[in-house]
Amino acid sequence: MQNHRVSFDFATECEGGRCVVKMAGELDLAARTAFDELFEAAPGTAIEVDLSDVTFMDCGGYATIVDAFTSATAGRCAFRVTGARRQPRRLLALLSELGLAEPGLAVVGLAVSGPG
Question: Could you tell me the CA-to-CA distances from 32 to 8, 57, 66, 70 in Å, in that order?
């Protein structure tokens, strides 16, 4: 039997209806449970997910962000992703270029050149 060590962390700062969730480490499917609980507990009318300290993100991690986005916007809460760098930024850009990004999910600072 193999133990899987979760290699991510997060911190939340909430003020005036705005919550910033600063993620760090590897954001993958193993992070999903804690991530889901975090967003259920985050009060506010605006949520910002800061990925500046995320070193790795796979499609499972992206799906977790999309689920949080869907829940937040269903509750009329603004939601955006900021600070994506290195591999997570490349994944977000690739999903966008391939037309696989979640419609309406704001990723700040992600400039993607479309076809043509």
Answer: 11, 12, 11, 15
The Cα–Cα gap between 95 and 68 comes to 17
Structure confidence by residue, pLDDT tens digits, 77-104? 889 999 999 999 999 999 988 988 889 8
Nearest to 48 by CA among 111, 113, 112, 105: 105
**Assigned CATH topology for domain 8-107:** Transcription Regulator spoIIAA (3.30.750)
Any idea which residue has 């700062």 for tokens? 13
DSSP letters for 53-96: EEEEE-HHHHHHHHHHHHHHHHTT-EEEEE---HHHHHHHHHHH
